[in-house]
Amino acid sequence: MKVKDIGEFGLINRITKKPKDKDILVGIGDDAAVIKTKKGLQVLTTDSLVEGDHFRREWFSPFQIGMKAVEINISDIASMGAIPKYVLVSFALPNDLEVDFVENIYKGMWKSCDKYNIEIIGGNMTHSEKIVISITLIGEVDNKNLALRSGAKPGDLIFVSGHLGNGRAGLRIFQEEIKGFENVKKGYLEPKAQLKTALKLSQYVNSMIDISDGLAPEIRHICNESKCGAIIYKDKIPISEEVRGAAKRLNEDPYDYALFGGEDFELVYTVSKKNIENINGFLVGEITRKNDFLLSNKGKEKKLTKNGYDHFF
Amino acid sequence: MKVKDIGEFGLINRITKKPKDKDILVGIGDDAAVIKTKKGLQVLTTDSLVEGDHFRREWFSPFQIGMKAVEINISDIASMGAIPKYVLVSFALPNDLEVDFVENIYKGMWKSCDKYNIEIIGGNMTHSEKIVISITLIGEVDNKNLALRSGAKPGDLIFVSGHLGNGRAGLRIFQEEIKGFENVKKGYLEPKAQLKTALKLSQYVNSMIDISDGLAPEIRHICNESKCGAIIYKDKIPISEEVRGAAKRLNEDPYDYALFGGEDFELVYTVSKKNIENINGFLVGEITRKNDFLLSNKGKEKKLTKNGYDHFF
Asked: Which residues of chain B form CATH 3.90.650.10?
């Protein structure tokens, strides 16, 4: 069996061991790990950007690569309700890369770090054929603000923090070398972590996750960890006119982008009805008692599979 | 100017910013970063292994890749006098890699982690053409045991914790496809962090660093951070008979391996004369007041340059 047959989460399930140390509150399986310190709770996450897979030098400026490397990690810390503090950077770089290029990656990293008073405290450099940037981000959170994937309850309403589908739409526009659609391109090149929104939400939500893999798999993660089901209302998923325009130009379905595209870095969160007046966001579904995972469209319900949904219902 | 022209430390010097946060005791420039928490001092390091550059699947079993990925990070934490606690793993994996292969990398990681009661608390998986394993290791240290690069004083004696040169000798034996030399090969495939030794030493040393890049550049790091010079006694550098044998077979200089080869993961540390009776190790040199960086051989002294030394003196 190969990695592509089992996927990221199959692989993680197969190799994960339950932590023994009682100071580890959350181990592998959420957006970030949580450990208990006397200062409070520390939240730790790591993520890598690989040249060719996550960025191409023809599309991204080095500054944008640096920003994206940091923002995707801030997004993981934000979705835990935590405040990001310290960054470690592990760089693998080709020998013939221009020093200016690396310096501009760093400037991009600092741009995103400075915005949130995050400090780059350490790192490492090594050689490789393609650029690989691995970032570890450490944050802090109060117990009352900690937002996990596992806290969703039947009856919770599901919200997203913003419009979806831009990540995939931008990628497709670049891949097909289509002119125009500058805002869609910019949304793809310069994703922004929703930190302020997350910190406002964290005390009111029962569960929260950031959208790196598409709305459907993210809600599925919440359901798996919370042992419940969900129904997503297709026509409530917020998709901008520009993303719809890009999809139309590409002759593709913008709901595919939103549900399965990923790289939007908006938040999806579930809220008890009593807390709804305290939060903002776009209502997109509801947590159910049953283990079903459904997409509702104009009153009809269909099962959502891992590979997508039936476009024609 | 390209990355290869300026090197790792040139690049780090060019992009490093001084941290503003007063809780950051040590930022970029040591084996690990140190931040103040109410529990004590936390030590954080990150390092990557890149397929083709740091390992080859023909030479290493997946179990050995996993062990090495963890041991090289433990080595960085150990050289700070700290106790390793938590690991984050960021994996970039080819789609057609066998799941068993990944599982065995993890088993190797756990083998090294279990030895020291370290827990793997989180991580991330993504796609790439070649295997890249980025590990972040977090440890704890008491202030009195913290060992930095910057504490060396003129008159300190310089010691190493074990025999040097095996890292490079093993690599060369594999590269030239030479049969035999099984212990040299094993030393290269399965390096061990000197954690127990480091914890015994830490309260007595003025400075300490682990040998990932060769004895000469590591002592140079200590001198740069401590603003002093050093003299290394060539004939006191401990090199095993087996490494000497491998060098002879390859028609190369074993002192080249020890001084510039790297990947030995032994410790080099400097100690005031009054503390010598408390420590073990091989005496290899002395810290001097002058900014010189010298190699002494049978009473003659020569400057050590970044590119090596004159083999014929």
From this structure: 147-303
The minimum CA-CA distance between A286 and chain B, rounded to whole Å, is 28
Quote the distance between the C-alpha of residue B215 and its chain's center: 9
Domain B147-303, CATH 3.90.650.10 — does that match?
yes
Tell me the pLDDT tens digit for each residue of B141-150.
998 999 999 9
With beta carbons under 8 A apart, name residues in chain B contacting A68: none
What pLDDT sits at residue A306? 66
CA distance B301 to chain A (A): 33
- Minimum Cα–Cα distance from A117: chain B residue: B21
User: B206, B271 in Cβ contact below 8 A?
Assistant: yes
Spell out which residues of chain B touch residue A130, defining contact as CB-CB under 8 Å: 128-130
Question: What would the DSSP string read from start to end of B164-217?
Answer: --HHHHHHHHHHTT----HHHHHHHHS----HHHHHHHTTT-SEEEE-SS-HHH
Tens-digit pLDDT profile for residues A13-46: 777 777 778 888 887 777 788 988 877 899 999 9
Q: If you average pLDDT over residues B101-107, what whole number do you get?
A: 94
Average pLDDT score over chain B: 91
- Cβ-Cβ contacts under 8 Å for B213 (sequence gap 6 or more): B262
- Residues contacting B98, CB < 8 A, separation 6+: A1, A2, A3
Residues of chain B with CATH 3.30.1330.10: 3-144
Verify whether the Cβ–Cβ distance B138 to A19 is below 8 Å. no
Give B187→chain A minimum CA distance, Å: 21
Does the pLDDT at position B86 exceed 80? yes
Provide the pLDDT for residue A6: 76
What would the two tokens of residue B298 be? 């049978």
Q: Which residues of B touch A103 (CB under 8 A)?
A: 14-15
Most B CBs within 10 Å, among A1, A13, A14, A15, to test the B interface? A15
- Count A/B contacts: CB-CB distance under 8 Å: 227
Sheet holding A40-50, edge to edge: A24-26, A33-37, A40-50, A132-141, A83-93, A119-127
Q: Which residue has the higher pLDDT, A281 or B303?
A: A281
Q: What is the pLDDT of residues A202-212, one digit of tens each?
A: 999 999 999 99
B195-229: pLDDT as tens digits: 999 999 999 999 999 999 899 999 999 999 999 99
- Chain A residue at shortest CA distance from B95: A4
CB-facing half-sphere around the CA of A263: CA atoms within 13 A = 23
For domain A3-144, the CATH architecture is 2-Layer Sandwich (3.30)
CATH superfamily, region A148-303: PurM-like C-terminal domain (3.90.650.10)
Closest chain B residue to A96, measured at CA: B2
Percentage above 90 pLDDT, chain A: 75
- Nearest CA of chain B to the CA of A118: how many Å? 9
pTM to 2 decimal places: 0.88
Q: Would the CB atoms of B132 and A48 count as touching at under 8 Å?
A: yes
Determine which of A8, A18, A75, A88 to mutate to test the interface with B (most B C-beta atoms within 10 Å).
Answer: A88
pLDDT at B313: 47
CB contact under 8 A, A119 and B48: no
